[in-house]
Every structure is written in structure tokens, then in C-alpha cells.
């Protein structure tokens, strides 16, 4: 019968390991498989492919070390396929009915039947009592899963078994196979198209990262090799130039005057149907929930910014005599700006993890509340909600550093404060080399931290859970620890399994594209992570998870559109980073229009970009407290301090050159950048 599970064969196994759990093994005979293959229009082979194989490519032997055996790469010959028709069985290439449908198709058909089987009595009108999902939710069954075909570490004893799990583990999931190609056809045959498409996309994405990583390394190496020729950095580090320039305090009371060369190293830049009222109410509640959590993220970011403003003064007070007077471990790299940036980035990363954990359950709840008509619609709605939240959560701090920090500072005597002067939280400034170094620090901590935490969650936690769950079964003889019990002790692969895998990669894609101009090594870090990610995911699927139910898929779904949007947005963000966050444009303007001497040179750029301010005109509220100034500061000899001009009434309007006009209402920052009017 097609209306009840009696169409399948049932085998009961009451003798389980704990003598409490009962297993029910379901087998679908040929008639059932053929009937539902016709219903589902499953494509099957009807003719061997006669398309000639491609000719051997010259120097193909160079790729031989990266290739897998032919029987692993192509477990089945190439065929022409057509939707199965039970009335035309002779049309299809059926050599053996027991093996005609691959395992992934068989478990997909069985699951399709089980999700639609009613379990109410015919004399009762309880139509909602249908499907294995409801039985799982009400606790009638604890789990339902397809069986693996063998142990992953050795072949099945039955010679008729293909031992595909063993081959996947040997040739795909081993970490020493990281340089090998993926057996995508075998993955599709064993796990189904949806999982196969994920690994095909992940492999392609990783291969493309190689070229981006090469370009990033070239940019980084060029920056290292050209460091000695960087006149601007030399002037900052030169004791006769940067050492003679006294900068204005970076915060009120607790910050002292400082010399430009104290931050010498940081100046180098690495560039179903519902009634309409009910539907409307549900969507309004859903939108309000998403908006609330987005505002919560913004509030957390504001809190981190306030932390940066408040703690900077404390670090500056501790390090007032020299950048390393109290911290000797890492030499002159430690500055108040760097200490504040690193600690704030770490706190921000912890907040990101906490908000992600909380919002994950909220997003699933509000998506369930909307009652999508199909599973695909459900996945797309959840995908958009989760990505929008993750986008704000992960990238908001980076956007702040890249486009807002140091842009609204004010000038000595008229500084800008975050919540007004009463808060005493003066807007923070960039380091002398600009905000790119701090943006790089933020990206490195959040991106690397996310990858490390993700790998621990994906590899270590399932391993520990499986070890603990199978501790009793391992002490029993092999003959009494059955295949279904071994699989029951593995972790369940939930319907959101691939969702989180895609989400992780898309967030990573944002990091390596949106801000790559400030951190060219980001693609290299992503490449190393993804080489490991492919094998970690493969190892999880073959050793730590129950065999998932096979599912059909045409593409990667809504993720494709999201990737396109991120790629387009990355063009805009990187253009803004180059134009407004870096000092590339001001350098070029100075080099070709305002350089000193007859030859185009950057010599004098630092002095040209700094404005003078008379110390005697700085209000008492902005002056350092008694005892905060360094020992070299002398009121009688040092009468002016310098700050960077990021807004000027116009080039050439001062008596000598840009910025060399005392007591002008110029916007100042410690970052070497201009906004040209």
C-alpha cells in the first residue's frame, strides 16, 4: 500500500546495548522504490554516454600527484539519464534491481514515505497525526536515520558492499590528502546532491582564494621590501624630525604631550496559507524582532567605543613616560593606541560570539512563526535573517574603524565628545600612520578568532560527544555492537548543518573582500583555513555524524545572491578605504603638486601635514594634569604642539604651506590624512 508504511519491510532488534533502546530497521523492496521513483521523477540512466573523452592535455603528468584513482573519482560510468517511468522499465539500464537505485536515492525515497505516513486509526479524524517528524517531536521515536554502509576505518566484510564510506575516509577525509582533488561524484552518490554541491562550491571557492592570496602576498612583500625607501616612515622615526615634533594630547587630563616618533613602527601601512491579518501580524513581529536585535548590536558597538575612549586615558597614564616604561615584553610595539585597540577588539569578539548564540535561536523561532510553505522557502527566509544579523554583528566594528574613527575629532580647545562634553569621552583619534593599522588589528583578531573557535566547535566538540556517548558500546565485542547502534551513538546531522557551513564561509568571504585593501594577507589566512576546512568537514561527515538523508539541490540557493551583493559592496568599501581611510590621495597630491624642491619627492610631507597650535590657548579642561607630562616636556621652551589637518579652508591659503597657520579653526586628528576642499 502506498498510504502506509506496510509497503516497507520492518525488522525489530529489541536486544540493544543498554537493553532499553529498541531499533526498527526499515527496508524498501523494488516495487516501492520503483513506484516512488516514478512519483518523484528521479533521473536514472537509460543509455551509456557516447561522448568522446577529452584528449590528454600536454604536461598532464604534472597534475598526477593531485589526482585520485579513477575508480574513486568516477565510481559510475557516464550515462544519459531520464526521469524514471515504472511502466517503461525495459527502457532503462537495469542490470540488478538491488543496486539500480544508489543508496542516497533509496534513503531519500524511504524518508519521503515516512514523512507522509499517517498513524491514526481509520475511524478517527486525526488527520494531523502524520509523518515521522511528528513522532520524533512527541518523543515516540528518539531518532530516525539512514545507516552507513560500513565502518570508516575498514572495508565491510560483505564483498557485495561497496564500502563507500571507507573509500571516502581514505581518499577524502584524511588530513594528509589536503592537496588532493575531491571525489565529488562519490560524495554525491553517498550523501546526495545537496551535500555534493556544497563541497563542489567550497572546493572552487578555495581554489580561487589561491590567486587572491598570491596577489595579497605580493602586496605584502612589496610593502616589506619598500619599507626602507618609505621617506614618510623615515621622517616619523627620525629623531631629528619626528623626535622634534611635539604632538597635542590625545585625551583630556590623563594624556600628555608626546613626540611623533614614539609611534614609529605603527606608521608603516599594510595596505502554508495564512489569513492576511495573521500574516501581517506575524511579519510585523518578525521585522520588529530583527530590528530589535540589530539595535542591540549597535548598542553593544557603542559600548565598545565608549570603552575605548575611557580606557585610552588609563593606558596613556600608565605609559606616560615612554611607550614601554611599564611593559617590557614586546618592546616598542606597545602604545596606548595599540593596547586600547587590541583589548577592545577582543571584547568585541566575545560580544559577537554571545550575540550570535542568542540570535540563532531567535531567528529560527521567528522563521517558524512565519510558516513558510516549502522547506526551500524556509531556508531562504532563515538565510536572509541570519546573514543580515551576522553582517551587522561581525562587520560593524570594522566599518567604524575604517570610516568613522578619527573623522570627528575637532581641534585643541574645541574637541568633539561622544555624548557631549559632560561625558568627558573625547572622540578617539587614529595613530600617526592612520587607522589602517588598527583596522588590520581588528580584522585579524575577529577573523582569526572566528576561524579558531569555528574549527574547535566543528572538530573537537563532536569528537568528545561521540567518545562519551559510545563509551559503553566500545567495551562490548564487535559482534554485539551493531551497525545501527554505532550510528546511533554518532552526532545527528540536523537540517541546519549545511546552513551553518555556508554561513561561516560567506562571513569569511566578507572579511577578505570588504576590507582587503587594509589587510592584503586576509585571503592567505582564508586559504589556509579553507584547506583545513574541507578536510575537517569531510572528516566530520564520514566519522562523527550519522548519515544524513539525501536531498536534491540545483545550486547553493540564496547564498549565491548574498555573495553577489557582498562582492559589489566590496568594490565600494575598498574604494572608500583608499580614498578616505588611507592617506594615498593626500600623498599623491603632495608628491605632484606641493613637494619641496625641483624633484618630485615625499620629503617634508610629515611636517607639511601637521598644523601648529599655541599651547597657551588650550583650555584647562583639555590640558594634562600635573605630573602627567613626560620628563622631557618644558613649558618655557615648548610653546606649540602639532596636530594633523584633515580639513582645511583650501590649499595655498596659509602664509607658507598647508597647516602652517597657528590658531586656525582646523579639524585635527593624529592620522596622517587630509580632506581637500
Give short descriptive properties of this protein.
disordered N terminus, 11 strands, 3-stranded antiparallel β-sheet, elongated, 677 residues, two-stranded antiparallel ribbon, disordered C terminus, mainly alpha
Explain what you see.
- This protein has 677 residues and is mainly alpha-helical.
- The protein has 19 helices and 11 strands.
- It has helices at 30-39, 70-73, 97-100, 103-114, 132-137, 164-173, 184-191, 193-225, 231-237, 276-318, 336-369, 375-403, 436-469, 483-488, 497-514, 522-544, 559-581, 584-594, 605-609; strands spanning 9-13, 23-27, 43-48, 79-83, 246-247, 258-259, 410-411, 414-415, 610-614, 640-647, 667-669.
- The strands form 5 sheets. Strands 9-10-11 form a 3-stranded antiparallel β-sheet. Strands 1-2 form a two-stranded antiparallel ribbon.
- β7 and β8 (414-415) form a beta hairpin.
- α6 (164-173) packs antiparallel against α16 (522-544), α8 (193-225) runs antiparallel to α16 (522-544) and α10 (276-318) packs parallel to α12 (375-403).
